[in-house]
Structures are given as C-alpha cells and as structure tokens.
Specification:
The complex is a heterodimer of chains A (308) and B (169).
Chain A (H helix, E strand, L loop, with lengths): L1 H5 L9 H21 L4 H37 L2 H38 L9 E9 L7 E4 L12 E3 L4 E8 L4 E5 L6 E6 L5 E6 L6 E7 L9 E4 L11 E9 L6 E8 L8 E5 L15 H14 L1
Antiparallel strand pairs in A: 1-2, 1-12, 2-5, 3-4, 3-12, 4-5, 6-7, 6-9, 7-8, 8-11, 9-10, 10-11
Chain B lengths: L2 H8 L6 H15 L5 H6 L3 H12 L6 H15 L5 H15 L1 H6 L5 H24 L8 H21 L6
Classes of the chains: A alpha+beta (308), B mainly alpha (169).
Chain lengths: 308, 169
C-alpha cells in the first residue's frame, strides 16, 4: 500500500480509497432513493430489458437436458402430438379445478355470510395463466418471476394463486415479466378469516417455505388445529374466500398475551410451475370509490359481526 | 517481490479486454442459473470471485468502477435494492486492489485463506444493507462465502491456464 502512495510515476487517476468512497456514496444514495421512493423503477425496467433474456437463457440452458430427455422419452412412449395435447389439457384442468374449488369455498362462505349479514358477495374475476420463469436467487426473499408482464395487462398488486389457494402477490411489473412475492416472504401479511368460526386475523409469512404465523391472536381465541384460513377480502387486495393456510400448531403460553400459532400454506407455494393471476378485483360491489370511506364500512361490518 | 511472482507473470498472455469481459459475463450467467433452496445458500458468488481475481491480478485494468457496474447489473437481475450488490462488489474490489501484492505473494494453494476475509467482508456488507433496510437476517447466507473461498483455487487455476501461452507438448 505504501508503494502505491509514494511512487506515482504514472498518473492512474484518483486513489482506490477516493474511488471506494465515491462509489460507496453513490451506492448508498441509490439505496436510499430505491428504498424510500419509486423513482428508479423506469431505470430498472430499462436495464432489465437486456438482462432478462440472458437470465431466461441461463435458466433455459440449465433445464434443457431435462427437457430433451422428456421429449425423447415422450416420443418413445406416445406421439409428440399427444404430449402437447396433454400439457394443454392439464393447463385447462388447472384453471377449471381452481374455479371449482373457489366455487365450493364461496358457497360455504356465502351461506355463512348470508346468515350473518344479508350480503351476498359476488366474485367474478378474470384469470390469466402464467408460467414461472425462474425463482429469485436472493436468499433473503421468497419471490418468483412469471412470464407475463405489463404487455399482458398485469399490474402490481394483483393476486396470484394456484388451484388450491393463494400463492402471493404481484409486486413489480416488467414489460414481459413480473415479480411475485410469495405469501411465505418474511412479514408478508394476508388478511384472513377462519372458515369454521369466521374469526378475522392476519397471517404473516415467516421467511420459511412451509410456515406462516398467525400473530396477535389472544390466548382465549377459538382456534383449533386443522382450522382452514381463507382470505377475508378486507382491504380489497385479496378476493374473499380463497384458501390460504391450515393451522398446524398452537402454543398457548399464559406468560404471553398472544398465542403462538403456526400454519402451513395450502397452495403449493414452492411446487407449482403454472400459476393464475387474478385481475380486475376493483369490481367488488361494496367498496366505494373513495378510499377514505372504505374503513368505515369495514368497521361497521366487523361490529355487526361481533354482535352476532 | 518474490521470485515466484515474476516467474508466474512471465508466461502470461496479456489479458485482453474481451477475455476479461467474457469471463465476467460467464460468471454472471453462472450466478443467474436457477439456484434454489440449499443450493442457493451454498452457491458461490461467481461474479464476485471473478471480479476479485481480476482486481488482484490486473488492478489497473479492473477497478472499483467496473465492480460497481457489475453490481448494478446483478442488482437488476436479482431485483434487490439498487446499489446493494454494487456496494458489496465495490468493497470487494477495493479489498482486492489494496491487497493484490500480498495475495499474489502467496502460492495459489494458500490464497483461499487470504481471499476469504475479503469475500466475507463483501457478504457482510450485502447482509447488513439488507438488515438495515428490511430488519431481518438469514445466517445461512454466509455459507456462500465459504464455498466462494473454496472455489477460488479451481477458478484461479482455470483462469491462469486460459491466460497461458499455448506451448508445444
């Protein structure tokens, strides 16, 4: 280090320390802007245009041997046509299965709600099939990227599910791709309701694949193992009545004000290849246009529920 | 400098810009393979390693600026916060440039131990940025710097042989 300081026969520009300080300040500035504001999203999507095809290529190369093997064995077993038709049918089946399941849950929930509130909630929303292109390689986060983006009218905040339940939420949209934050992402909150009792709660991701936690529930609350949690539809982000998780473990320690409740997600959050993106949730009839009024109606609803 | 250093440098081809760029590109592509689960935790940071290699062997060609640019690309690809990888790679490159003579003094088999603290520092910068911004931490992330240090040996041997003149057998 002394050499570089004392013998400067050639001008090499600023010293490494100066450079480090400059670039560190630049990084910290970018970090600050990116964390606080949303100004950098356009730059990010411009930079992503050349990078994402490369990433897709990397994913493609690494999965290509498996794909080839599948093709060869499929050709030996049957004909290529049959294979293709089969995958298509499977996709369709997934869509129908999801819709059927939603219907069943809606029916039970509808009965319950009608008894309670005289409100029949309609849930008609279009769905789009999307394929997981790759899984995020950041170990701190639970995110996947799907192959539909703003070109296919995907918007940030839309809900992603598979045939058995909620997977997550679209958090960032690129032109041909979008990023889905899974419900198991740390501190990711989903407003839910117990299917059995109608008790409302919020389920949080734990950053672990197979665990969600139900926080801030009093020890005396009526929750049992194997209770199913469905989305409550409160706050309008998630459509009501879609299964989210199942209670697996309850610890009631009188030393703490809240019970410790663990759940596992019902959907194959880490297993699916094809997902469905729900769009057009703003058609919910009971949500008024003003966002200010929304909490009032909700609080009324909950008060009435408590009275029941 | 020791004998070993000059002997080693004697038969090297001049590292062309395209070779450096190609190696960086390959490393980034390796980082972008679909790693998952435990493999993701164990994945060595290929891009960081290749950066460190060039920073220690060609400190006047590859510097903090290039490291920062590569970091920004990695940030976009990993959809991490802007500047998170850039900051950690800048620190890594700075360490590499600062200690390049010391690291080159050692035999290639002894280098992983010398390189490990640098990699650990860059991992710590990345993790602490995450901790400051998000408030949580996953410790298995640091497994990656062990495997990175282990990969240093095969990787530098590979790059050295690729830079060597083709001699008649």
């Amino acid at each position: 280090m002394d050499n570089t300081h004392s013998f400067r026969f050639f001008n090499r520009g600023p010293s490494p320390v100066a450079r480090l300080i400059f670039f560190a300040m630049l990084s910290l500035l970018l970090l600050f802007i990116d964390a606080r504001y949303r100004h950098l999203e356009t730059i990010r999507s411009i930079l992503a245009l050349p990078i994402q095809p490369l990433q897709r290529l990397a994913t493609g190369i690494s999965t290509q041997p498996g794909v080839w093997w599948g093709q060869v064995s499929g050709y030996l077993d049957t004909h290529g046509n049959l294979v293709r038709e089969n995958t298509q049918l499977k996709q369709e089946h997934d869509v129908y299965a999801a819709q059927l399941l939603k219907l069943q849950v809606l029916q039970t929930e509808n009965e319950q709600l009608r008894k309670l509130l005289d409100v029949s909630q309609q849930a008609q929303y279009p769905m789009q099939m999307a394929e997981i292109v790759y899984v995020d390689r950041d170990i701190f986060k639970r995110k996947v990227l799907i192959d539909k983006g703003s070109q296919k009218n995907i918007e940030a905040g839309q809900v992603v599910m598979d045939q058995t339940g909620i997977i997550g939420q679209v958090t960032r949209v690129y032109p041909w791709m979008s990023e889905v934050t899974l419900i198991t992402d740390r501190d990711h909150a989903v407003p839910v309701q117990l299917l059995r009792t109608g008790l409302r709660a919020v389920v949080f991701g734990s950053g672990d694949i197979s665990n969600l936690s139900l926080r801030y529930m009093p020890i005396s609350s009526d929750i049992q193992v194997d209770d199913v949690l469905v989305t409550s539809g409160i706050d309008g982000t998630y459509p009501p009545g879609i299964p989210v998780a199942k209670v697996t473990q309850i610890e009631r320690d009188p030393a703490y004000p809240f019970a410790r409740i663990l759940c596992t997600p019902l959907a194959g959050v880490d297993q699916q290849k094809y997902l469905m993106v729900i769009s057009g949730l703003h058609k919910l009839p009971e949500l008024p246009k003003e966002t200010v009024k929304a909490p009032e109606t909700k609080s009324k609803k909950s008060r009435r529920k408590k009275n029941e | 400098m020791s004998d070993h250093y000059s002997k080693d440098q004697e038969f090297m081809l001049p590292a062309t810009g395209s070779f450096i760029a190609l190696s960086m590109f390959t490393a980034l592509m390796l980082n972008w393979l679909p790693w998952q689960g435990l493999w993701l935790a164990l994945r060595p940071d290929f891009a960081g390693l290749v950066l460190l290699y060039w920073c220690t062997h060609k400190p006047h060609r590859v510097g903090i600026g290039i490291a920062w640019t590569v970091g920004i690309l990695a940030d976009v690809a990993d959809s991490s916060l802007f500047g998170q990888h850039a900051l950690s790679y800048s620190v890594l490159a700075f360490g590499g440039i600062l200690l390049h003579r010391r690291i080159q003094m050692f035999d290639v088999r002894e280098q992983p131990l010398q390189v490990f603290p640098l990699i650990l520092a860059s991992y710590a910068v990345f993790a602490s940025v995450h901790w400051l911004m998000r408030g949580n931490m996953s410790w298995e992330f640091f497994l990656g710097c062990l495997t990175s240090a282990l990969l240093w040996l095969p990787m530098s041997i590979l790059l050295q042989t690729m830079r060597r003149t083709r001699s008649d057998p």
